[in-house]
Specification:
heterodimer; A: mainly beta; six-stranded mixed β-sheet; four-stranded antiparallel β-sheet; B: mainly beta; seven-stranded mixed β-sheet; 11 strands; 0% helix; globular
């Protein structure tokens, strides 16, 4: 079946550090891939998406590239800020199903 | 911007009560979803609806039911609340009429933190 695995947190970084949060997936066919962010006390917000192999999604300085050969969609940011502290979820949506598969989330804490 | 509104941010109920969680979206989306979010378990799908009056069970439907009488509103019902249903509940909607538009993202409400005493 379809699944998403993302690195466990928490991840603690200093401001301006480089961020990578790993995400790998298992799916038949060509799913669409998403990163969502959840700030404290809020619901999930779409951060970026990619719908086919080699696509790069980007938003607010975050990037992720859809790598079919390694079935990965790692989230990166060159210089994190305190305001990026949140929980990040990787998700996939496979053709032929309404269901989305979410990873368990990775908590990021950025220290000033 | 898509707006998904959940009727309560915080709710406290007693065991055995019938509990209603309401969700309204303003973008004429066909698909709507109810999840619960628990630490270490991520998001788990309870029920979803792909159109008015249509519903399907998700991964953890036991103890829950849903209602979708109008396109914009999707209600989650806890038939007889129990303490193990204490959780954060998230509603989402998506603009798609079929299962073959997988590139459409889901849009989430701010969640309802439900405590069952």
């Amino acid at each position: 079946g379809n699944s998403v695995t993302q690195m466990e947190g928490p991840v603690t970084l200093s401001e301006e550090a480089f961020l990578t949060i790993n995400c790998t997936y298992t799916a038949t066919g060509y799913p669409s891939l998403f990163w969502y962010v959840q700030y404290p006390g809020e619901g999930l917000q779409l951060l970026l998406k990619a719908t086919k192999a080699d696509d790069k999604g980007s938003n607010k300085g975050f990037e992720a590239t859809y790598r079919k050969e390694t079935t990965s969609f790692h989230l990166e940011k060159g210089s994190v800020q305190v305001s990026d502290s949140a929980v990040y979820f990787c998700a996939l949506s496979a053709l032929g199903t309404y269901k989305y598969i979410f990873g368990t989330g990775t908590r990021l804490k950025v220290l000033a | 911007d898509v707006k998904v509104t959940q009727s309560s941010r915080y709710l406290v109920k007693r065991t055995g009560e019938k509990v209603f969680l309401e969700c309204v979206q303003d973008m004429d989306h066909e698909n709507m979803f109810w999840y619960r979010q628990d630490p270490g378990l991520g998001l788990r799908l309870i029920y979803f609806s792909y159109d008015v009056k249509m519903k399907e069970k998700g991964d953890i439907p036991e103890g829950y039911s849903v209602s979708r009488e109008k396109k914009e509103r999707f209600s989650l019902i806890l038939e007889s609340a129990s303490t193990n249903q204490t959780s954060m509940y998230l509603c989402a909607s998506r603009d798609s009429g079929t299962a073959y538009d997988s590139n459409q993202p889901q849009h989430f409400g701010d969640g309802t933190r439900l405590s069952i005493l």
